[in-house]
Amino acid sequence: MADNKNDASGQDKRSVRELQSAVTKRIVWWIVGIILTLIVVIVFMGFRYVKSAMGPANPDSKAQVTVTIPVGSTNKQIAAILADKKVIKSAMVFNYYIKSHNLTGFQAGEYTLKPSMTLAAVIDTMRTDTVNAKPVAHVLVREGVTISDIAKSMKDYTKKDPNLTRKSFMKAIKSEKLFKQLLKKYPKLLTDTSKAKGVRYRLEGYLFPATYDVSKNMSAEQLVSEMVAKTDTTLSPYYKTMDDKNLSVQETMTLASLVEREGVTATSRRKIAGVFYNRIAINMPLQSDVAIMYALNTHKTHLTLDDLKVKSPYNLYKHPGFGPGPFNQPSLASVQATLNPADRDKDYLYFVANLKTGKIRFARTLSEHNVNKAAIGSDNQ
Fold it and tell me: Are 156 and 165 in contact (CB under 8 A)?
């Protein structure tokens, strides 16, 4: 009797387990079915959304919309502008489309578009309409020029673009609103200069030397933004090196701007950078004539003793350290020299250049430097 009871009890337990297993399987299959159904619905709805977004934003519209694409705009920014102007239905689908088709070639400028155009037609027009997007001028920023120099050069481009004048350029340079926009976009590049004290222009040193295409009706703000964007792109591979050397971007660009004007060759620039670092290490003023001329806001071949006494945070004869910020727009070569100085172990603290040959003599002591100056002085006569 006991065995029969045990057998019956065992069969009951197996029946319960089998029933539980069957119920569990049914629940799992229900869940899987629901998930698959949701996936199908989502894919279907997504397909319909994309298909709809590929069509015209307003097929019945006969309006024409002028869309301005600023210089340096990313694809996402272009998509946002088009969506805001209601030329396209979806900025997200615009981005997906150009990525999936590997499309490039969008230029800054003004475009005449229609809400009745399909997404593909809008994109095709923006990639092929070179009438309004083509450059009307080419603005050249030379190595070692100051913001004031660039502003003066605007007179060469005003006839081709009336928006570019010395006044409009300087207004853009001084615009706190524009600087905050650029700071938000390029924090690694501009955070240091945003915190700097006593700078004349926060963007001095950050308008990269290059040739910039000016499209029809480009504003000074757009041009300045493109220059800053070029600087960030160029310096991006060097940010880690600056961090490794415990140099801020502001310090790097400041020394590079001095090296730019003091040196001539790659070798001399690296050695001059080494001299500056040696002086900073012992809290010795850099005593750069380039800094004095920037403080005086003038260009001189020879400086007087009174010039060296000018009251300015940029006077690096009086003040040790790097100074408030850059003195001009340094080239990439000068940035590289600043990040890779030469002959620091030779303890050079002085240098003087032969104005005729460009040769630079370096010295460890003031007495050696005076000998070098006398020798080069006779050569320069």
Answer: no
Q: Kindly report which listed range (14-28, 173-187, 231-245, 358-372) carries the lowest average pLDDT score.
A: 14-28
Residue 7 within a domain: no
Give dist(CA 107, CA 222) in Å, integer.
13
Q: Is the separation of the CB atoms in 358 and 340 below 8 Å?
A: no
Is residue 8 in a domain?
Answer: no
Cβ atoms of 76 and 95 closer than 8 Å: yes
| pLDDT tens, residue by residue, 105-147 | 677 777 888 899 898 888 887 777 655 566 778 899 999 999 9
356 and 253 in a common domain: yes
Spatial distance between the Cα atoms of 154 and 264, rounded to a whole number of angstroms? 27
Query: Which domain-ending residue is among 180, 206, 233?
Result: 233
Residue 130 near residue 83, CB atoms below 8 Å = no
Contact 313, 292 (CB under 8 A): no
Residue 1 belongs to a domain: no
Residue 290 is predicted with a pLDDT of: 93
CB under 8 Å to 308, separation ≥6 — which residues? 292, 315, 317, 318
Question: 188 to each of 6, 72, 103, 225, 258, how far by Cα in Å?
Answer: 77, 17, 29, 15, 22
Domain containing 42 equals 13-54
Please list the residues that pair with 213 across neighbouring strands.
Answer: 138
Residues in the chain: 381
For residues 205 and 249, membership in a common domain is answered with no
Residue 126's nearest CA partner among 116, 111, 138, 114 is 111
d(CA 93, CA 50): 6
Q: Specify if 2 maps to a domain.
A: no
How many structural domains compose the chain? 4
For residue 160, give the amino acid letter.
K
> Which pLDDT belongs to residue 9?
65
- Nearest 5°: the CA angle 205, 209, 214 is 115
